[in-house]
Structures are given as C-alpha cells and as structure tokens.
Amino acid sequence: MSCMEKPRNFLNQLKDDGLILKKRYKTLIEIEEGNKVQREKGLYDMLEWLEEEQSDNIKQIWKCVFKEHLRNEYRTLRNLHQKLQSVCNANNRKLQKGMKRKSSQQEDEEGEKQHGTGSEASSSFNEPLLKVVCGELKAILVKEMFDEGGKGMHFIRG
Q: Is the pLDDT of residue 119 over 80?
C-alpha cells in the first residue's frame, strides 16, 4: 500500500474517519508532491504507525481501507480485499466441513455411549474441532487451520 502513486484520496479517507491526525495528513500531502521515495517512506511510516499505535482500531482501519470507492481507485486495495475474501471463504468452507464431520462424530459417540461401547477416556483434544470458552466468549478452534499457521479460531455469537 505504501507504493500508491496518488495516495491523496486514501489519505483523505483516513483523515475523514479520524484515523490519522491532521498534522500527519498535511505532512503526507506535502510529501505526495515530492519525490516517489519520500512519498513511499512517508506512507510506510504512517501505515506502520497505524499498525503499532492504532491496533485497537484495526477493524475500523480495515473498514476504511476497503471502502468501495477506494477499492475502485486503488488496484492494490482491490487485490488485497479479493485475496482476503477468498481466504475467508476457504476458511469458512473448511469450518463448515469440519462442523459437519464433528456433528456426525458426536452422533456416533452418543450412540456408543447409549449402548455402552464408547470409551470415556478418549480425549476431545484429538478431534479436528475444539470448542473453546473464555468467560462469555465462545469459539471453535479448527486444528487443521491452526496447524497451518492461519487463524484457526472462529467466534460464535450468543
């Protein structure tokens, strides 16, 4: 993203959404008129600052960055958005597939327990999906995705 040719509209949106200060905005706009190396460094520093200092607002930052008019103007944002969507869709398909597998396994286990053939010593840690509860937060850990280094947690509302 730091290699944008004309980042003015991108910066305008960040400023309008209150994600960067006016002083930083003005500095970056002035750099935009300067040379390419300075512009890229300025944008990179600003993005790094957003990552480090505004991490609590990451959801708001992504909403801002992926607004339709910015995706239409900046190919980089459009491509990034498409890649993230495809990864999310693939993860959701894996989760749904895993949940179906888990559901049928649970039915099998319940049938075994009713008939006295199941082993209560078998650990749920061997399952592909694990229910995780922390306070009021509930999630499902997809071990396969987690093992691959991706985000293996899918949060459940309610």
A: no
Count of domains in the chain? Answer: 2
Dihedral class, residue 132 (left if φ above 0, else alpha if ψ from -120 to 50, else beta) = beta
Query: Quick one: average pLDDT of 7-20?
Result: 90
Q: Does residue 79 lie within any of the structural domains?
A: no
d(CA 51, CA 88): 21
pTM tops 0.70: no
How large is the greatest C-alpha to C-alpha distance in the chain, in angstroms? 77
d(CA 142, CA 70): 33
Cα–Cα distance measured from residue 33 to residue 37, given in angstroms and rounded to the nearest whole number: 11
Cα distance from N-terminal residue to C-terminal residue, the chain:
36
Q: Is residue 14 a part of any domain in this protein?
A: yes
Q: What angle do CA 109, 140, 85 make, to 5 degrees?
A: 130
Residue 51's pLDDT is what?
86
CB proximity list for 144: less than 8 A, separation 6 or greater: 94, 98, 128, 152
Q: Which amino acid is at 42?
A: G
